[in-house]
Amino acid sequence: MSTESPEVNEVIEQTPHAGDGAPPTDQLAPTLMSATDAANTTRTKIEIENLNFWYGRKQALTDISLAIQERRVTAFIGPSGCGKSTLLRCLNRMNDLIPGARLEGTVRVDGHDIYNASDAVVVRRHIGMVFQKPNPFPKSIYQNIVWGAKINGFSGQPDELVERCLRQAALWDEVKDRLGDNAYNLSGGQQQRLCIARALAVEPEILLMDEPASALDPIATTKLEETILDLRERYTVVIVTHNMHQARRVSDETAFFYIGQLIEKTPTEQLFTRPREQRTEDYIMGRFG
Amino acid sequence: MNGASNIASRNIDLAVKARRGFGERIIRFVLAGCALVSVLVTVAIAATLIYESVGFFRDVSVLRFLTESQWTPQFVDKQFGIWPLLSGTLLVTLIAALVAMPIGLFSAIYIAEYAGDRIRRVLKPGLEVLAGVPTVVYGWFALTFVTPVLQSIFPSLGVYNALSAGLVVGIMIIPMVASISEDAIRAVPRALAEGGYALGGTKIEVVSTIVVPGALSGIVASFILALSRAIGETMIVTLAAGATPNLTINPAESIQTMTAFIVQVSLGDTPHGTIVYKSIFAVGLTLFLITLGMNLLANVIIRRYKESY
Amino acid sequence: MADLSKDIGGSVSAMRRRVGDALAVLFLAATMTGLVVLMVLLVDIVVQAWGWLSPGFLANYPSRFPEQAGIKSAIFGSLWMISLTGLIAIPVGVGAAIYLEEYARTGWLLRVIQVNIANLAGVPSVLYGILGLALFVRFLLLGRSLIAGALTMALLILPVVIISAQEAIRAVPSGVREGALALGATRWEVVRDHLLPMSATGILTGVILALSRAIGETAPLLMIGALSFVAFIPEGIMDSFTVLPIQIFNWASRPQPEFKHLAAAGIVVLMVVLLIMNAAAITLRNRLDKRRQQV
After folding, report:
1. Does the beta-carbon distance from A121 to C182 stay under 8 Å?
2. Which of these, A197, B185, C60, C225, could form a disulfide with B112 (CB 3.0-4.6 Å)?
3. Could A121 and B20 be called an inter-chain contact, meaning their C-beta atoms sit closer than 8 Å?
4. How confident is the model over B42-82, as pLDDT tens digits?
5. Which of C94, C99, C157, C224 has the most B C-beta neighbours within 10 Å, making it the best mutation to test the interface with B?
6. Where are the domains of chain C?
7. SS3 at position A268
8. What is the ipTM metric for this complex?
């Protein structure tokens, strides 16, 4: 595609918050956006087209087409086994690691087909992920953050990086005096925010979260949700959750999945107040799931 | 890039190849080479044995190898019947089996079902030590301790005999039977045993009618693996069983096993390329095929029982 | 039918209980048999070696005269042998384990390789000796040298090293792999920075146990022609050599009773070496268990 990779690298290495061109306007609902702002902030970041996915012979996703907007929090909801986590893992090619998995269709990020025009390692470097169960490395808090940046060629001041990422993940105040401690000594909620900080350290554009609060207590969940709302200013966030209230609290748009199919995707408020589909309504009313 | 790159919404260029791709491929290649070594070892063992055996069977027909009743390659009147070596091997293995199968199995039952935590913490390392004793030490023990003890019971027993070697080989493989059988017994779901207790079974009734039969395939596998080990055992039989190929089932006699013959030839200064030199490969091939068959069988059985629970 | 209240108050029939008790005693007796034999063996070794295990025994070279015979060249030979074997078998074995656990695609080929490794672990050691004799001594013209012996031994312990390293690597939680890969790490970066450090203790434990098997092995080295009368210390990998078990075998196979005692003294030395190695493995394993509990 591109022959001018040095220039391209420069673009990549801009820190997410270095570009001051885009004031955070996301607090406004998309529909209220002015025309000029809309050009910048409601751009499609991820475009999924006719995606089918199989684990061995079992089809897990059927003909999914979906556009995810830049700098929005998009929530995937649906009963367990509906394919929401599978779809999330298609977005940074984590499913490549599963033996016997097969994918058809395209996923484009900024217009690039991530399955054909790219290397899985490069894709994951730009698209961060936070997992269901906190999985920090059994190293110090400091090392947890620096490692990912280092392997991706980071050569700046590590101390600054650590502080910046921990602040963005709202963990700095709690751990600033014990950065050398093993990450396993943190509480579950802290570990999960450390995992977010770790993902931010490689300066991704997109952050995927796979039920990030499912292993956390209510207080830790509240902190995590606040963190996610802050992240929206700079990152495109896709969050899978089994908790409809959480989706409603943190997301701008919500996609509802059922047995491997996308039922509908609309602005969150609309999905929860005026769903188009009967099945969506049944689910959010708690009639199944 | 075709899209105008807007400062506000930065474009990711995913078309960049990972910078580390080349080194990564070399590492992958080297690691795959390491894994390949294990395959090459098998191929090399088989190829070596087959290649030299072909030379052997060019001089000595397979028919003679399988029908002659004596094994005397070092004599002037050379005879190449494998049966005396085979019978010697089987005699030792049979004696070892009679020792190791009951003792190993009972030990496994005791450790898995009866022993408390504290006793188990003593028993298991004890068995591990028994498994870790070098075979040359066992050979010395058979020759200098077990044989004299046996001679005091049976005064006619010679210095070299199949009985002493077989008993000690049996002791050597007890830990193997015990540990694999114990794994198999532990793999039997607890719910099965509880079902038996709920019907009013006593401990021994539940163990003997539910737990042990449930673990039977694993126990059989442990027997096969241990006997394969006994067949391939070299130092004990070399030291204690003698060096006389002897078509006999009398455990008091001196015999020679396949392994002991291989060692005997290599200890002497046998010139490369002679029929005696080649004969160790033919014997080795026989040994290889027997043990390989047994190991494959045992592994198939183990895999099957692991799947079934 | 039976009167329940009476039955619950009563006990299992005396007959059934006696059979159960008798068998329990039988099981215990069987378990003790192995341990009693082990005790007898150890006591016998010490009794036989008594008086023969002197400083001179450790410092002398072998001799036709039992009073002057020593085990110095065998000790050094064993140390050489074990170091070379480790240098060859550890990188290859751990490399193979990493490949099989982290790189290889699951499928029939991987299954064949795994079955092959399991079977290699069961191939009689004397056949490795035949391979070493044909391949290293004769075909590669390495002669009856240390390196030929070490290569043979390395192949012998390779399956054990691979299997234990695979288990250690498999024990690392999968979340660590996923977390690292999701940051854009390559496979090797995950292995180098996370999997190897986290599995190092487990791998090392397996390696020590494999090497302690190698240090007691006799048959393969007899096959490739390790000598028993070596009156010098090897100085390079092409030197001829002897090792402890070969020296023990040589003494044990002589008819004179004095040499049987020398063999016992040699066994004590060999067992002490093994004891040290096993103690190291157990210490490592305990440390590992403690760390697992913390995590």
Report:
1. no
2. B185
3. yes
4. 999 999 999 999 999 998 888 888 888 888 887 778 888 89
5. C99
6. 2-49, 57-294
7. helix
8. 0.89
